[in-house]
Design goal:
The structure holds two protein chains of two kinds. Chain A is α+β, with helices and mostly antiparallel strands. Chain A is built from twelve helices and 14 strands. Chain A has three domains: 5-53, Uridine Diphospho-n-acetylenolpyruvylglucosamine Reductase, domain 2; 61-173, 2-Layer Sandwich (Uridine Diphospho-n-acetylenolpyruvylglucosamine Reductase, domain 3), CATH 3.30.465.10; 180-276, CO dehydrogenase flavoprotein, C-terminal domain (Enolase-like, domain 1, 2-Layer Sandwich). Chain B is elongated, with a radius of gyration of 17 Å. The chains are: A alpha+beta, B alpha+beta. The interface between A and B is large, with 39 and 39 residues.
């Protein structure tokens, strides 16, 4: 169908965008890459939006090193995340995950900030940044603040963003020497949302596992992490099955998703062993 | 600096090398603007939620969904449709390979398929069949079963690599 839009304006900078959102009587909607928002408007899941187009705010684009961490602007596109040398070196999880997102033409427009603020529980990037322990930087009418990834995702399409706030960037620790980061997911067709997926990293301090498409938000599987730290893969698979909250839908049953999560954890563990050698 | 949300937005862009100025409705898709206002009906509006790929266009050098981008967002953009890419002979070899390999039947998906395939080909090298399939995974074809399309793209990749090597 065709989108139903109440109004549109291009923001000149972040402060302008914040002011525009505040003036929209609660109907303000940030338009970045538009690869989820425009689709939702086309299906009339969202109507009457007052669109604040931030897609030209070049200060929100790009990847930089800052104080020993990696900073990724909210408008950095999926295709760029996949090929950026800093990300390939310091956050290979994100680069690998980008290749799983939808199709090439979508990756050319979609932005990481949009994907995180949209908070689709089946999407890769929310789980990635939870796994990588990132911090989200947001700006709103009351100024700027930082939100830990672990506090950001509240539920289905729900985040810690307050009305009128804009996600401007994320930052995350660089991978340690010898750290391994992998994504494993299962989708019926290339580009589909995963039936289940896992982000797994192994650092000196231990494993981190974030699961996606198996609950209303990305889930940090602490029980499975502890079991992997103790070297017990079977216990990790059992704990993971307890920790995730998959739903049944037309794509797959909850039981099948739970089974898949275990299979994916074994695959990830094998890969990590292989890549660490 | 205006703080006024608008229902109609002035845009200036280039389409197939020609400058275009227009006033567009806020919610109009880029593909509908091209089809309805400019008469460029090569890119097709089909699923209208970014799944089928029939509306694929080239925007600032990238293959993009024409149904997931608003015309209002195309201000300042350089856009190429299948019409312009045909007239400029940018991918005549690819079009000829589609015909030679019978890589279309009804042809509905073909404009989007060509734009998507050309993006892969223009990256250079000879992608293997799995890479071609992956790159075209966002473009549905309900006629061919894809084998002939992959054949055509592979043929052109080899031919261009051969020419480049000479």
């Amino acid at each position: 169908m065709k989108a139903s839009v109440a109004g549109y304006i291009r923001a000149n900078d972040v402060a302008h965008a914040v002011r525009l959102l505040a003036s929209a009587d609660g109907m303000g909607r940030v338009l970045a890459g538009g690869q989820s928002l425009v689709a939702a408007m086309n299906m009339r899941l969202s109507t009457g939006d007052m669109l604040v187009d931030i897609s030209r705010l070049t200060e929100l684009e790009g990847v930089t090193e800052e104080d020993g961490r990696l900073r990724i602007g909210a408008l950095t596109r999926h295709a760029e995340i996949g090929r950026n040398p800093l990300i390939q070196t310091h956050a290979p999880l994100l680069a690998e995950a980008a290749g799983h997102i939808a199709h090439a033409a979508i990756r050319n427009r979609g932005t990481i900030g949009g994907a995180l603020a949209h908070a689709d529980p089946a999407a890769e990037f929310p789980a990635c940044i939870l796994c990588l322990n990132a911090v989200l930087h947001v700006t709103g009418p009351d100024g700027s603040r930082d939100i830990a990834a672990g506090d950001f995702f509240h539920g289905l399409f729900e985040t810690a963003l307050e009305e009128g706030e804009i996600l401007t960037a994320i930052s995350l620790p660089k991978a340690e020497p010898g750290e391994v980061q992998v994504v494993e997911e299962m989708a019926r067709r290339a580009g589909d949302y995963a039936l289940a997926g896992l982000c797994v990293t192994r650092r000196r301090a231990g494993y981190r596992i974030a699961a996606f498409s198996v609950g209303p938000r990305p889930i940090l599987a602490t029980g499975a992490m502890q079991a992997l730290d103790a070297g017990d893969l079977d216990a990790a698979v059992a704990n993971l099955a307890e920790e995730i909250e998959p739903a049944s839908d037309t794509q797959a049953s909850a039981a099948y998703r739970r089974h898949l999560a275990g299979v994916l954890l074994r695959r990830a563990a094998l890969r990590i062993e292989g890549e660490a050698q | 600096m205006s703080d006024q949300f608008e229902n109609r937005i002035d845009i200036a862009l280039t389409v197939n090398g020609e400058p275009v100025e227009a006033r567009v409705p806020a919610g109009q898709h880029l593909v509908d603007f091209l089809r309805l206002e400019l008469g460029l009906t090569g890119a097709h509006a089909s699923c209208e939620h970014g799944v089928c790929g029939a509306c694929t266009l080239r925007v600032n050098g990238d293959a993009v969904r024409g149904c997931l981008m608003l015309a209002a967002q195309a201000d300042g953009a350089e856009i190429w449709t299948v019409e312009g890419l045909s007239d400029s002979a940018a991918f005549t070899d690819l079009q000829e390979a589609f015909v030679a390999r019978n890589a279309l039947q009804c042809g509905f998906c073909t404009p989007g398929m060509l734009v998507a395939a050309e993006e892969l080909l223009s990256a250079g090298g000879v992608p293997d069949r799995a890479e071609i399939r992956e790159h075209l995974s966002g473009n549905y074809c309900r006629c061919t079963g894809y084998e002939a399309i992959v054949d055509a793209v592979e043929t052109v990749a080899r031919a261009r690599a051969g020419e480049a090597a000479q």
